[in-house]
Amino acid sequence: MSLLNIISLALVVALTRAGPILNNPSRVLRRDAPAPSAYPLDSACGNEWQYLNFNTTVATDRVHLQTLHDVICGGEMRAISSYGQISAQNVNTPYKRYFPESDDEDDYPTNVKDVLGLIAGASSTDGAIGTVVGTFVVDNLDFAANVPGASDCTVEGTLAYTLEDQVDDLEKIHFCDLSWTRGEASDVDCASLDPFPSTKMDSFSRIALHEMMHYSSIGPNTPVGETIGDCKNGDSEPANDPPRVHGLLDPNQDDNPAVTEINADSYAWMSLDAWMSQNCIAGSDTNNWASFFTQNPPPYNE
């Protein structure tokens, strides 16, 4: 990374694992904290993530368990992460909307491909998803109060977070109520989309992929070499939707390409962009799926 990029990173980027900061959160002590389990409603698929604090006698919990199971075992997470991986490998339009091309110092496409490859996995014969996902834990409890300086689901707009719980010493994902309002990517009406990527194509799988990026077993175990967090744009607001994620890279906006590979939503929106493009492209253009969105997102400050 060049000196200019390092200086730029220090000036305009703030990394956090959980979003806005709360002052002096109280610590909630739990005795004999339960251990994570496999999918409790039926047989788990290969490398499915683990579950904690879900009550299978509660209808809402059962619905959420089914959603979490389906996003892995139904193949959507592998499909989205795989198309993101393909876009990075080919350095095609979805990739170039959110990430820089290689330069003399950094092979960004390979870095991005390797990160997403951990999620997608090497082969369908190895499981429904990458091996590392089987180590992830989804906690139904809003446990952020146990983590000093972290935010919980009471913070407006928070969809989910990934933190290490200081009570049970587990790194875990929690999905807030707002996240459950997102549907499957395959249910998005292609005809309703803008000519550029927008939140109209958002899905639960995009939120899940974002949180997976935060895990300490992802970024540090790839050429990225560090934890993937949540970066901010030049106006100090989170880069968390297509215009803002694109704005990190855009030379007419933030012009800060070095931070894109440590921003979770850059991976999540690029992968969803790539998958949605191939899903929505019509007729004989299937070989040119990367051209589905004909425009980049508008500037985030418009």
From TrEMBL:
Residues 230-256 are annotated as: Disordered. GO terms for molecular function: metallopeptidase activity. Keywords: Signal. Residues 1-18 form the signal peptide. InterPro entries: MetalloPept_cat_dom_sf. It comes from the Eukaryota. This is Lysine-specific metallo-endopeptidase domain-containing protein. It comes from Letharia columbiana. The lineage of its organism: Eukaryota, Fungi, Dikarya, Ascomycota, Pezizomycotina.
